[in-house]
């Protein structure tokens, strides 16, 4: 594999329906986490984790242990319970409500208390026409590549970091760095607003930026943070959110994508250390 192949090519124009479908399915899995796990700070209990083939809930304790996985390599939803029961449902762009009902039927039939079932009234019945197994496979490969780079960054950090996680509500892969300080004037019991932090993330596109991109944000944003000199190809964004943005297509056009990305993250982490 060459350096340029470390991160697979993505056609930003064609992945939209696949991205939107997987986002909707990820929300279903995230709702099961919220209904079955006790709350952790920064909502870490409700986030998914990268897996070898896509993304997963990990093991969930709900009377009987279970795991739900979105296999992006084979475009299928896999449910497993500790007693060996298994369900496999092909993913082809069907409404999220259909997958939610299938999961609910499987888990409750295998011992999960029906009181744990998420409400499921917000998933909708939209069909994601244009869903592509090939695009889902590529997106899974991108998740693995970004996760590998983010893991390298995480290993270099001595302070607390979050898990590397996939957020169902925005469908972004991200990691928080928490230097340990509290923000003056904020309730220290509310970690969302009181913990100083930086967020290193990747998203397949959203309403603000419709193509895949990396982002780095800091909270609270130091006044001179946007003055940090960025490498060519990365820019400061101020509309919608404030942070450094690197388009995925720009990264894979560089001569050393992994080196560029780790260099960018390391530079911004150092800038955050000296300012937060």
Topology record:
Layout: H1 16-36, E1 49-50, E2 54-56, E3 60-62, E4 64-71, E5 76-81, E6 86-90, H2 96-109, H3 133-155, E7 160-161, E8 165-167, E9 172-178, H4 191-194, E10 197-203, E11 213-219, E12 234-237, E13 243-247, H5 248-252, H6 257-275
How would you summarize what this structure contains?
It contains six helices and 13 strands. The chain is of the alpha+beta class and about 280 residues long. Strands 7, 8, 9, 10, 11, 12 and 13 form a seven-stranded antiparallel sheet that branches.
Overview features:
31% helix, 276 residues, 22% strand, alpha+beta
Overview of the structural elements:
By secondary structure, the chain is an alpha+beta fold. It has six helices and 13 strands. The protein has helices spanning 16-36, 96-109, 133-155, 191-194, 248-252, 257-275; strands spanning 49-50, 54-56, 60-62, 64-71, 76-81, 86-90, 160-161, 165-167, 172-178, 197-203, 213-219, 234-237, 243-247. The strands form two sheets. Strands 7, 8, 9, 10, 11, 12 and 13 form a seven-stranded antiparallel beta sheet that branches. Helix 1 runs parallel beside helix 2 (96-109). It is globular, with a radius of gyration of 19 Å.
């Amino acid at each position: 594999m060459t350096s340029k192949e470390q991160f697979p090519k993505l056609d930003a124009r064609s992945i939209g329906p696949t991205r939107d479908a997987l986002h909707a399915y990820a929300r279903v899995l995230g709702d099961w986490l919220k209904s079955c796990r006790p709350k952790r700070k920064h909502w870490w209990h409700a986030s998914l984790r990268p897996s070898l083939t896509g993304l997963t809930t990990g093991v969930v304790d709900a009377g009987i242990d279970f795991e739900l996985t979105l296999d992006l390599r084979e475009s299928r939803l896999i449910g497993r319970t500790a007693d060996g029961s298994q369900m496999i449902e092909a993913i082809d762009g069907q409404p999220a409500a259909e997958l939610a009902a299938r999961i609910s039927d499987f888990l409750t039939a295998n011992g999960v208390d029906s009181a744990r079932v998420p409400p499921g009234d917000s998933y909708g019945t939209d069909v994601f026409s244009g869903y592509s197994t090939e695009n889902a496979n590529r997106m899974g490969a991108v998740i693995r590549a970004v996760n590998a780079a983010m893991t390298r960054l995480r290993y270099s950090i001595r302070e607390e970091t979050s898990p590397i996680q996939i957020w169902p509500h925005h469908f972004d892969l991200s990691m928080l760095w928490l230097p340990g300080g509290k923000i003056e004037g904020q309730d220290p019991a509310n970690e969302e607003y009181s913990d100083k932090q930086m967020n290193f993330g990747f998203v397949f596109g959203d309403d603000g930026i419709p193509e895949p991109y990396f982002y780095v944000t800091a909270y609270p944003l130091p006044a001179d943070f946007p003055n940090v000199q960025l490498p060519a190809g990365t820019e400061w964004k101020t509309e919608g959110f404030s942070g450094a943005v690197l388009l995925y297509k720009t990264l894979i056009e560089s001569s050393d994508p992994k080196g560029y990305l780790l260099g960018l993250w390391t530079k911004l982490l150092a800038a955050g250390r000296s300012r937060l």
